[in-house]
Design brief:
By secondary structure, the protein is of the alpha+beta class. The chain is 17% helix and 48% strand. The longest helix is centred in the last third of the chain and has 11 residues, at 70-80.
Length: 106
């Protein structure tokens, strides 16, 4: 039974992840660009404007881990120390009953 871990990382700076653990996939997501326009003088010179932009870089990491490896994988993420980054972690796991164990219980 493997657990799938999905990690979405958002940051204002370029993301450089070093030494990815084994069985890790990396997908670059499209950047988000938000443009703000501010009037310098709202009364007299309407044509005098100033523009600011905010760019957000995104990256999606996915990895498979067995239950006893989860602690190591999360410790790796903590050690990366990407300052100013926002993490969103998604876990998905499937549980299955073994036929042999089920027959022993019955």
């Amino acid at each position: 039974m493997a657990t799938k871990i999905g990690i979405m990382i958002r940051s204002f700076d370029r993301l450089c992840l070093e030494s990815l653990p084994a069985h890790t996939g990396k997908i670059a997501m499209p950047d988000t660009r938000t443009l703000y326009t501010v009037l310098r003088s709202p009364h007299i010179d309407k044509k005098s404007r100033e523009q600011f932009e905010m760019r957000i870089k995104k990256q999606f990491l996915f990895m498979k881990a067995k239950p006893h490896e989860l602690e190591k994988k999360l410790f790796w993420l903590k050690r990366q120390r990407i300052f100013g980054a926002q993490y969103e972690i998604q876990f998905s796991c499937k549980t299955r009953l073994d036929k042999e164990k089920l027959q022993k219980l019955l």
